[in-house]
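User: I would dearly like some help making sense of a protein record. This is the protein in question:
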Amino acid sequence: MKPIPSNYPRILIAGTNSGVGKTTITLGLMSVLKKRGFAVQGYKVGPDYIDPSHHTAVTGRPSRNLDTWLMSRDVCLELFERSLVQSDIAVIEGVMGLYDGCMDGTEYGSTAHLSKILNTPTILVIDARGMSRSAGAVVLGYKHFDKDIRIRGIILNRIKSERHYVSIKKSIEDNCDIPVLGYLSFNEEIILPERHMGLVPSAEQELSKSAYQKIGNLMSATVDIDRLISIASSVNSLPAFKKTVFVGNNDRFYFRIAVAVDEAFNFYYQDNLDLVESYGVELTYFSPIYDKYLPADIDGLYIGGGFPELYAAMLASNTTMKESIRKAYKNGVLIYGECGGMMYLLEQMVDFKNKTYEMCGILKGMTKMENKRQGLGYVTVQAQHDNLLCNNGDVFRAHEFHWSSLHVPEGTSYAYTISKCDENKTKADGLFADRVMGSYAHVHFATDPRLAKHFLQNIKKA
């Protein structure tokens, strides 16, 4: 394995706010770097699953999530350093605006916070539409809001003309002492498609591959890539940290877990899968849409989130797979479903067109797609009962993002209560029964590695 230098080349692409083009610029940079022969390791600030899927498609390496609200400082550093093996440069995509994070008014969960933890230079992306000289004032505010943040360059998105670019570049460089490294013009051919939960994941669209290359080609022509590489290479060392996630995993669990992966289910954190495998577990993958049966000889089943509501008809019509899952459950297989996975484990699903589809029926109840979000943001989870992931009274952090509402029989017991990071109100979450659990809470095991171990211990006991 290639040794990892402490001053590992790295750069962070941030934005003034959501929708300014961070993902477009990030994917373009990754594409250019890969074309030049770099092994690029991608990262996403925050809990999002979709942007990392595009990073992975461009770089050919699983992208990782780093989140300073879900994880401690040391965990962020550990996951970052661990995944750098056999790569040449790290490209980190920010979340929302540079200073936006948890809604409690602190820097936790923000791009800025991670930038400071990783000692990483920041490139700020600005949407230049409807703006000229005022861009200097915007950058000046971002520069002085937190002087510990090293904004090393600006990239302008949606520039209308060369004259427009020159005007903004002059305002920023004259007033802010930060170089403008280039721009992208508005181009419909590089717009990535979106829907109710953000960008469409890379797994669902072939057009992404050509779009990535096109963005890269455009950036090569109008952005100073060599200077970006120079900025990424002139970094300070990573600070010292203590490893707590991928160390001391001496327990061995020699069994197989089937993981659902297809267009309907693809929301997984790579570090979750890596952590499970670090205990000796064999992961095998299957498709609830296309495969007729579960893989043979499994002891556990892990169904992550995704978009089952868009593939409800295909999931419902695959009766042999649903029966295979029911049979596995009856034969002692433990099942964990997260968000979309929980929706699939319930009895019915009602889609956006109000059409009802039969699902697995292992958990009692149904979900219904609504016309607005039903849950979004960081949550603190407190267990109310022993369950597959933890014991009664345990507390950990997670996040939720869903458009479906849950309808269950009266008197149903819930595994958790959850509360948002900026609110005191609580609500119930987590359906559970013997050897099965489903929840809207998306869990990154690095927030508390005991969660993964508890899950594996429960499989072993069964």
Summary: The chain has a mean pLDDT of 94. The longest strand covers residues 151-159. The two ends are 38 Å apart (CA to CA).
